[in-house]
Amino acid sequence: MSAIAHEIIPRLWLGNVKASTNEAFITNNHIHVVFNCTKDLPFSPMIPIKYRIPVDDNLQEIEIKNMELWSSEIAFKIMAEYRKGYPILVHCMAGMQRSAAAVAFTLIAYQHMHALDAMRHIKQIRPIAFTPRANFGRSIDYFDRMFHGEILPEMKKLPYHSKSD
């Protein structure tokens, strides 16, 4: 049986629905922000800051496209909360696909990783992630191309740019 959550980078946790409702996990890890990557799973009342990423993991084209459309907002909202110093849990039902994709977007934007490196990093820490394959791989590749091809080159033109931007 897999752990309910894994810390992918300090203070950024990837987990399943059990992590989002486990009082001991939330308290012990000081979880302050939850990104719920489902359309209908409830939030724990213990969590002060809550975001919903309304995507189903049913492999339908519309859901893959929705994840692509949400990718920038997902990455930059997670980064905004992360920069405030808040411990964050990103979860879906199993912590394998939707939430793993959201964390991959964040690693691409925050650490300037490329898609394959971000997915490998996540899978190394949370082996069930992207199993048996990355259902939202196309969405992750899309964000990778957009970030490295459009966003990052523009950021580098800014006088205050640093790697953590």
UniProtKB/TrEMBL annotation:
GO cellular component: cytoplasm
Hydrolase keyword on record: yes
Annotated Pfam families: DSPc
Residues covered by the Tyrosine specific protein phosphatases domain: 78-127
A Gene Ontology BP annotation from the UniProt entry: negative regulation of MAPK cascade
GO molecular function terms noted in the UniProt entry: phosphoprotein phosphatase activity
Keyword Chloroplast in record: no
Alphabetic keyword roster: Hydrolase, Protein phosphatase
Entries under InterPro entries matching the protein: Dual-sp_phosphatase_cat-dom, Prot-tyrosine_phosphatase-like, Tyr_Pase_AS, Tyr_Pase_dom, TYR_PHOSPHATASE_DUAL_dom
PANTHER family noted in UniProt: DUAL SPECIFICITY PROTEIN PHOSPHATASE (PTHR10159), DUAL SPECIFICITY PROTEIN PHOSPHATASE MPK3 (PTHR10159:SF519)
Descriptive protein name: Tyrosine specific protein phosphatases domain-containing protein
Organism: viral metagenome
